[in-house]
């Protein structure tokens, strides 16, 4: 009996730990499954993995056809992220298949796909499901005779040094990536109508996708800047996916090698791959660009409590707090483009919220002269950030019959007329009745 | 069983009521009425002087009681006769006896009116059929101050009072019994109105008729918590007060009339009927030279106070002075003042001076009038609807609505009624009304002219809109009450006269002789009676004739109508004819009662929300699908979720499911309804986008195809198309009609088959019986197997009457393009066109009537429209490449044929079993080519 308080104390001391691992407040998952074709990848790409584990991720390396691998057990996902460094796998082992991976994404988890030349249909299919179409020719590679990397040149100009990076601080970090990024692999195209997926590293206009070993008999299917080398996709549930056409760009060899673009004299000691991939994996694993909105408040000007209903032409104040996840804590999000709509079928009011730099966004406006069931809507979609979609329903009523203005200045002549008429009538009746 | 007993009880009660108490009343009245002739005959025979003495007393009575200035009424006659009688004591006793009798009759009428409406509660349960007070809370809170808003405040106060008195009544119970209570009030109001017009006898008859007129029952059964039930009471009461004021000239009643009008404005939009009918009557009175100060008192305060009060009702507001519906009242208001002025001037000027003044005023006045009218016309014409709101315009021009406002025309109760609906709703009253009109003309008073005007206008309006039968019903009851009362008066009077007359022939003869000899005053007093009597004969003849037409007993009518002419001199009918007439009238009344009880029990008591049907073995089958669906919505959806459905179900959804709807029965926003109509008529994807933009989470459709419930959404669908097309022109009605016919079978147009309404109604319908046979349209549906791409079926009620779908959320990911190499497609097209010529021969063998697809395909081939045929083929190919069910089955079948697992001739059978007739066509094409190369391509 004496032991039970001790166990209790031990359990209580464990609570913070348990809480930490289950906290829904921290969007950054810590457990990542890495599936590889063979375990040599673990050492050849060790620099990249080291950068991940140094940021606190627990990497679990498994062969893609390991019969024991599973993404979930008893309905719970075992991992928060998945890295597919297995371009040639035809069939996953264990319970994992294409549908399982897509379900993994659809339940809000992150995914990194690295394809390569001779990628299997499985990997291509997964990429297609995520919106990226790899070149159909399995032997095709991205070739650029102008922007190839001089140092890695083997004569076929398949190692490309590209610096066509997306201009987004939230995806690629605030420090500029100076050196070009080395790439060797297969290209893919994106559907321009697809609003969820965008190119992070795109090819130059001189690029084309073809089999370097054979002669070109027909024009290549993918050419120029339509080719995307590395793309990211943010699903509607904010799951993030990185699609890369090259596994080798993650390798230690490309990380370490110096780079010099053809037709360019500047020689960089170190390629931009490490910085690029580290920064983008920070984004993919939600260390940046993850927003949350809390404390949506609205009230009449001069009041504190939230009313159940507004009246037309009321002045109201609306405020919301928006924070960004920094990887370890929630920091105030600072921007000047957050807008609120006062919406019934269409926005009646659209106002930009002003930020106090501490995360609180607020504005005040007048309720339009229309009654009905309105909504406060914040639809914040910004490149690289998670989508904020808040809506709060509020009815708006018309004036009550006793809320109209009692005396209208413009009507004073009429009041005068009415009262003078009354007085006149009284006098007239008096005179009429009592004269004589 | 219980219901039956009660029904029988009520019917016997009401039958006893009519057959028993009615003649009794008539006899009682006539017993009194018969006295004056006897008395007068006695007095005239004794001395002319005595007769002259009684004359002033009878003429002073109308002066004392202006209400009874209509001295032709039976009651007036009763009192006249009483005044003629010497003993004041006897008079008081008779008076009191008549009053007590009338009071109890009225009480019983009230009980009858209340209890005949309780069938729904007995047969079903105490539910509100139409909509709930919760809705009014929501509406008052959120959307608008309704017309019934003030009524509602009052109502809530009352329930609160009841609760504070510790009477255990829920709001719902009160609501359920509101309509029957008010119909009892309405029948009392009818009594008072008719009493003002033609005396208490007619009043009682009219009240009894109104208490059970089916048209009014349809709107006021227990649980139909509609404002019309209250409004009819307000309407009749307003008319009563107007007539009362007209008869008395009392300013008190005039003020009360304005308040009653205000109550009517609060309760129903039909108040415009009052504000147009009363001016019409005033104008009629002025034109026929019946202007009096009483008319002025009845009208002027009503316009001034009534308009002021009406403007206080939020939904009316400034409309009370701005819309054309009210213009008539103001115009007449001006006219009555002008007329009053003219009368005044006429009184103070000499005739010659007056003539001069008239010419002077007219010449100046006409010029001014022209200018004013021109300005008025210009102002009115500048507004798009000429100042008239759509509903009113459709009253004046019955074709207006169908031409311009489909939303008004779409409501079934806004359609013109059919002839049977008159017989259904007012039954024998339709025959009695003409007799009542004639009775009103003999003689014509201000009050009776008003009633005539009322019946004429309401007959016209009811002919425009079936809903306004409700307004016709009170008028018809009043008229029939007058007709019945007059007929009974005459018939029972002559029976009495004959019975008593034969015993005292002398006095009768003396009476006959005395009348021509008496003074001019005497003959004047009798003349109306004579003319009235002949009228009565005619009316009774007429009513009997009509009734005979139904009963095919014409000979008796002729006999009974020929004979009275002989006895006209005595102002009485022969005894036999009178007895037969009374008997036939009672029979007529009995028919009416039986019909009313039947209508109350069977036709109008079913709550629209719970349906029943008789099973073949006589049992009762209850369809409670609506409440099932609303309960599902209430328990399984979020509070803020919005539900889209056609607007008919809006109030019910708000009230019973407590969810916000996009459109409801308050059709104030045509654009919203048109948007929903457009969404329902659009293909799935477009509809999804519309609904998504409206924040709709659930879509509710009503489908009667499984159980044969005819007023479902598919039958209303054309109205959705029309209303949608009225605002969004890309929806065109002809796209949904095949050769002008609305059909949902295989001949239906592709637009129809792809519309959201079709898909949501018939999704998975074929799984019920394997054929997809729609019991309402009595045909097999055109498109049986399809999948929904943007909607998920979440709930379907037990009898499939309500189906609820949820909008799919937008896809989490957007898929990349599925690219196929062009070379394969090209080769397929080539091989298809090669196969083309042989197609006809093959498809002829395959019973092409099987489905729409093969027919169209064949037609395409005949028309040599190759591109279209190729398109259809490619669609199949697409199905195949997407791995869909149809494509897969087709693929397996093809494989089987070409591996010779199944013989070619069995393909048709198999695909028919599998219900994939599309495949049949394609396979036949392939087989006709007998080229395995194509199969290899397809096998890709």
From TrEMBL, chain A:
Lineage: Eukaryota, Viridiplantae, Streptophyta, Embryophyta, Tracheophyta
Similarity comment text for this entry: Belongs to the DDOST 48 kDa subunit family.
Source organism: Punica granatum
Top-level taxonomic group: Eukaryota
Keyword Endoplasmic reticulum among record annotations: yes
Originating gene: LOC116203088
Pfam families per the UniProt record, alphabetical: OST48_MD, OST48_N
Protein purpose: Subunit of the oligosaccharyl transferase (OST) complex that catalyzes the initial transfer of a defined glycan (Glc(3)Man(9)GlcNAc(2) in eukaryotes) from the lipid carrier dolichol-pyrophosphate to an asparagine residue within an Asn-X-Ser/Thr consensus motif in nascent polypeptide chains, the first step in protein N-glycosylation. N-glycosylation occurs cotranslationally and the complex associates with the Sec61 complex at the channel-forming translocon complex that mediates protein translocation across the endoplasmic reticulum (ER).
Membrane spanning stretches: 412-434
The protein, known as: Dolichyl-diphosphooligosaccharide--protein glycosyltransferase 48 kDa subunit
GO cellular component entries: oligosaccharyltransferase complex
GO biological process, any: protein N-linked glycosylation via asparagine
Subunit structure: Component of the oligosaccharyltransferase (OST) complex.
PANTHER family: DOLICHYL-DIPHOSPHOOLIGOSACCHARIDE--PROTEIN GLYCOSYLTRANSFERASE 48 KDA SUBUNIT (PTHR10830)
Signal peptide: 1-21
Membrane-related topology note: Single-pass type I membrane protein
Domain OST48 middle per the UniProt entry, residue ranges: 298-436
Keyword terms of this UniProt record: Endoplasmic reticulum, Membrane, Signal, Transmembrane, Transmembrane helix
Cellular location(s): Endoplasmic reticulum membrane; Membrane
Automatic annotation (TrEMBL), chain B:
Region of interest called Disordered, as start-end residue ranges on this chain: 50-78, 513-563
Protein name: dolichyl-diphosphooligosaccharide--protein glycotransferase
Family: Belongs to the STT3 family.
InterPro entries named among the record's database cross-references: Oligo_trans_STT3 (IPR003674), STT3-PglB_core (IPR048999), STT3_N (IPR048307)
Presence of the UniProt keyword Signal in the record: no
Lineage: Eukaryota, Viridiplantae, Streptophyta, Embryophyta, Tracheophyta
Keyword tags: Endoplasmic reticulum, Glycoprotein, Glycosyltransferase, Magnesium, Manganese, Membrane, Metal-binding, Transferase, Transmembrane, Transmembrane helix
Coiled coil: none
């Amino acid at each position: 009996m004496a032991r039970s308080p001790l166990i209790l104390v031990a359990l209580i001391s464990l609570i913070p730990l348990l809480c930490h691992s289950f906290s829904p407040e921290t969007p950054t998952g810590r457990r990542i499954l890495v599936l590889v074709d063979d375990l040599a990848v673990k050492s050849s790409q060790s620099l990249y993995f080291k950068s991940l584990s140094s940021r606190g991720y627990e990497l679990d390396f498994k062969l893609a056809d390991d019969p024991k691998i599973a993404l979930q057990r008893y309905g719970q996902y075992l991992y928060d992220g998945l890295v597919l460094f297995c371009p040639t796998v035809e069939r996953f082992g264990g319970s994992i298949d294409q549908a399982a991976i897509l379900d993994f994404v659809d339940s809000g988890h992150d995914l990194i796909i690295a394809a390569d030349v001779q990628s299997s249909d499985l990997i291509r299919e997964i990429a297609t499901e995520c919106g990226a179409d790899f070149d159909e020719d399995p032997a095709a590679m991205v070739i650029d005779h102008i922007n190839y990397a001089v140092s890695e040149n083997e004569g076929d100009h398949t190692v490309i040094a590209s610096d066509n990076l997306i201009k987004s601080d939230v995806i690629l970090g605030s420090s500029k990536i100076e050196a070009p990024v080395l790439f060797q692999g297969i290209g893919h195209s994106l559907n321009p109508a697809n609003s969820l997926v965008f190119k992070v590293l795109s090819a130059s206009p001189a690029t084309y996708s073809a089999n370097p070993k054979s002669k070109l008999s027909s024009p290549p299917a993918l050419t120029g800047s339509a080719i995307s080398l590395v793309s990211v996709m943010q699903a509607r549930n904010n799951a993030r996916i990185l699609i890369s056409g090259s596994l080798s760009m993650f390798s230690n060899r490309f990380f370490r090698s110096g780079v010099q673009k053809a037709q360019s004299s500047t020689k960089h000691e170190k390629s931009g791959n490490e910085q690029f991939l580290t920064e983008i994996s920070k984004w993919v694993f939600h260390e940046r660009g993850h927003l949350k909105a809390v404390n949506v408040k609205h009230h009449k000007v001069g009041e504190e409590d939230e009313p159940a209903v507004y009246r037309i032409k009321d002045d109201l104040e609306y405020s919301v707090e928006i924070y960004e996840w920094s990887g370890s804590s929630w920091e105030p999000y600072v921007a000047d483009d957050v807008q609120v709509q006062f919406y019934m079928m269409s926005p009646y009011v659209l106002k930009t919220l002003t930020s106090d730099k501490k995360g609180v966004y607020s504005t005040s406006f007048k309720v339009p002269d229309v009654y009905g069931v309105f909504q406060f809507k914040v639809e914040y979609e910004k490149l690289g950030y998670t989508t904020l979609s808040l809506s709060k329903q509020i009815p708006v009523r018309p004036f009550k019959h006793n809320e109209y203005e009692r005396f209208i200045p413009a009507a004073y002549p009429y009041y005068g007329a009415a009262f003078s008429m009354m007085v006149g009538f009284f006098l007239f009746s008096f005179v009429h009745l009592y004269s004589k | 069983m219980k219901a039956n007993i009660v029904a029988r009880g009520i019917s016997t009660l009401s039958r006893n009521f009519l057959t028993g108490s009615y003649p009794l009343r008539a006899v009682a009245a006539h017993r009194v009425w018969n006295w004056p002739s006897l008395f007068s005959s006695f007095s005239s025979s004794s001395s002319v002087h005595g007769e002259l003495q009684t004359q002033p007393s009878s003429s002073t009575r109308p002066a004392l009681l202006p209400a009874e200035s209509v001295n032709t009424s039976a009651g007036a006659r009763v009192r006249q006769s009483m005044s003629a009688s010497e003993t004041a004591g006897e008079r008081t006793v008779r008076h009191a006896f008549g009053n007590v009798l009338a009071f109890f009759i009225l009480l019983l009428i009230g009980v009858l009116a209340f209890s005949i409406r309780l069938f729904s509660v007995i047969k079903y349960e105490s539910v509100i059929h139409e909509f709930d007070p919760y809705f009014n809370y929501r509406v008052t809170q959120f959307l608008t101050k309704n017309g019934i808003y003030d009524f509602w405040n009052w109502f809530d106060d009352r329930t609160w009072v009841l609760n504070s008195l510790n009477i255990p009544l829920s709001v719902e119970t009160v609501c359920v019994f509101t309509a029957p209570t008010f119909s009892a009030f309405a029948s009392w109001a009818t009594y008072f109105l008719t009493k003002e017009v033609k005396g208490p006898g007619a009043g009682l008859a009219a009240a009894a008729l109104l208490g059970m007129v089916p048209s009014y029952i349809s709107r006021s059964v227990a649980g139909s918590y509609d404002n019309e039930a209250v409004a009819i009471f307000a309407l009749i009461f307003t008319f009563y007060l107007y007539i009362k004021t007209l008869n008395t000239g009392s300013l008190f009643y005039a003020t009360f009339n304005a308040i009653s009008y205000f109550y009517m404005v609060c309760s129903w939009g039909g108040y415009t009927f009052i504000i147009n009918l009363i001016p019409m009557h005033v104008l009629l009175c002025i034109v026929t030279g019946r202007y009096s100060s009483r008319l002025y008192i009845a009208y002027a305060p009503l316009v001034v106070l009534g308009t002021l009060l009406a403007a206080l009702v939020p939904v009316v507001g400034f409309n009370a002075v701005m819309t054309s519906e009210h213009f008539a009242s103001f115009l007449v208001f001006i006219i009555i003042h002008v007329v009053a002025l003219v009368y005044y001037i006429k009184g103070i000027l000499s005739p010659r001076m007056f003539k001069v003044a008239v010419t002077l005023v007219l010449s100046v006045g006409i010029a001014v009038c022209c200018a004013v009218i021109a300005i008025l016309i210009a102002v009115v014409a500048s507004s798009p609807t000429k100042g008239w709101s759509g509903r009113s315009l459709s009253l004046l021009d019955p074709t207006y609505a169908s031409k311009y406002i489909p939303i008004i025309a779409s409501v079934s109760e806004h359609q013109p009624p059919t002839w049977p609906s008159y017989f259904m709703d007012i039954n024998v009253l339709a025959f009695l009304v003409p007799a009542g009109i004639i009775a009103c003309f003999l003689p014509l008073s201000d009050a009776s002219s008003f009633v005539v005007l009322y019946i004429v206008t309401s007959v016209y309006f009811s002919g425009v809109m079936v809903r306004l039968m409700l307004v016709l019903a009170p008028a018809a009851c009043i008229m029939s009450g007058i007709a019945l009362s007059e007929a009974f008066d005459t018939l029972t009077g002559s029976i009495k006269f004959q019975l008593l007359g034969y015993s005292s022939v002398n006095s009768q003869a003396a009476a006959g002789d005395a009348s021509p000899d008496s003074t001019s005053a005497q003959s004047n007093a009798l003349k109306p009676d004579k003319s009235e009597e002949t009228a009565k004969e005619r009316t009774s003849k007429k009513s009997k004739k009509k009734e005979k037409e139904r009963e095919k007993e014409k000979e008796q009518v002729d006999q009974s109508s020929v004979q009275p002419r002989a006895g006209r001199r005595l102002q009485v009918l022969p005894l036999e004819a009178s007895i037969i007439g009374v008997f036939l009238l009672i029979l007529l009344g009995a028919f009416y009662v039986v019909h009313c009880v039947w209508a109350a029990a069977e036709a109008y008591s079913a709550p629209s929300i719970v349906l029943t049907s008789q099973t073949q073995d006589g049992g009762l089958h209850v369809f409670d699908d609506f409440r099932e669906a609303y309960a599902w919505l209430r328990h399984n959806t979020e509070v803020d979720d919005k539900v889209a459905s056609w607007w008919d179900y809006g109030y019910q959804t708000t009230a019973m499911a407590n969810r916000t709807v996009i459109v409801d029965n308050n059709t104030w926003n045509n654009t919203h309804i048109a948007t929903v109509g457009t969404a329902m008529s659009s293909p799935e994807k477009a509809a999804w986008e519309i609904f998504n933009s409206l924040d709709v989470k659930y879509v509710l459709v009503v489908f009667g195809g499984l159980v044969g419930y005819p007023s479902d959404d598919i039958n209303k669908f054309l109205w959705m198309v029309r209303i949608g097309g009225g605002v969004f022109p890309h929806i065109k009605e002809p796209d949904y009609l095949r050769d002008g016919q609305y059909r949902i079978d295989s001949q239906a147009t592709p637009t129809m088959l792809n519309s959201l309404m079709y898909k949501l109604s018939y999704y998975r319908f074929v799984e019920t019986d394997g054929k997809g046979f729609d019991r309402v349209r009595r045909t097999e549906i055109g498109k049986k197997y399809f999948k929904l791409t943007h909607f998920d079926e979440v709930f379907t009620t037990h009898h499939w009457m309500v189906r609820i779908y949820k909008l799919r959320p937008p896809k989490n990911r957007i898929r990349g393009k599925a690219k196929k190499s062009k070379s394969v497609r090209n080769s397929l097209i080539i091989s298809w066109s090669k196969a083309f010529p042989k197609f006809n021969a093959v498809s002829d063998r395959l019973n092409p009537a099987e489905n729409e697809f093969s027919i169209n395909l064949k037609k395409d081939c005949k028309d040599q429209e190759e591109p279209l045929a190729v398109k259809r083929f490619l669609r199949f190919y697409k199905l195949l490449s997407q791995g869909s069910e149809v494509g897969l089955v087709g693929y397996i079948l093809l494989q089987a044929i070409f591996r010779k697992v199944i013989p070619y001739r069995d393909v048709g059978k198999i695909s028919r079993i599998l219900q994939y007739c599309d495949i049949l066509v394609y396979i036949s094409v392939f087989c006709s080519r007998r080229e395995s190369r194509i199969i290899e391509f397809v096998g890709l």
